[in-house]
């Protein structure tokens, strides 16, 4: 079974930066998609950024130009570099990976990490 472990959240002032990491461990399978979601209090979870197996990235409009999703060379760890943070970026951030098993695809989620941006 593959697990995802997140790290890097915390408290930062508006305008600051944070980098989140999400590493796959255990029985790692080929990963076809990496993504970051966030959920603010009282709101639905939203997709923040995604990175396809082919290297194509996409972003939520409100974070374009400020956030960057990337991965390591082994393609088992994803990062979310967050710059120029705003209070509205506050929430629990979850990483998501889609694993390619021989019999189909499976979704994997990290445990979530809190990001709090103070004004």
Write the layout of secondary structure elements.
Blueprint: E1 2-7, E2 10-13, E3 18-26, E4 31-39, E5 46-52, E6 57-59, E7 67-71, E8 77-82, E9 91-101, E10 104-109, E11 113-118
How would you characterize this protein structure?
This protein is mainly beta. The protein is 0% helix and 61% strand. It contains no helices and 11 strands. The strands form 2 sheets. Strands 2, 4, 5, 6, 9, 10 and 11 form a 7-stranded mixed β-sheet that branches. A 4-stranded antiparallel β-sheet has the order 1-3-8-7, with no helix packed on it. The model has no long low-confidence stretch (mean pLDDT 96).
Residues in helix, %: under 10%
Number of helices: 0
User: What is the string of helix and strand elements?
Assistant: EEEEEEEEEEE
Tally of strands: 11
pLDDT averaged over residues:
96
Radius of gyration from the CA trace?
Answer: 14 Å
Provide the β-strand percentage band.
over 45%
Class based on secondary structure composition and strand pairing:
mainly beta
Distance between the termini: 41 Å
Shape: elongated
Unreliably modeled segments: none
| Main sheet makeup | 7 strands, mixed
- Multimer state: single chain
């Amino acid at each position: 079974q593959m697990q995802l472990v997140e790290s890097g959240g915390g408290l930062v002032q508006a305008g600051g930066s944070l980098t989140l990491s999400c590493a796959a461990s255990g029985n790692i399978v080929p990963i076809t998609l990496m993504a970051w979601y966030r959920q603010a209090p009282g709101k639905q979870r939203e997709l923040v950024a995604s990175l396809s197996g082919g290297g194509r990235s996409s972003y939520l409009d409100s974070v374009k130009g400020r956030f960057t999703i990337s991965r390591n060379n082994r393609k088992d760890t994803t990062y979310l570099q967050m710059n120029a943070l705003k209070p509205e970026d506050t929430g629990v951030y979850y990483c998501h990976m889609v694993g390619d098993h021989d019999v189909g695809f499976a979704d994997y989620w990290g445990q979530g990490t809190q990001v709090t941006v103070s004004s």
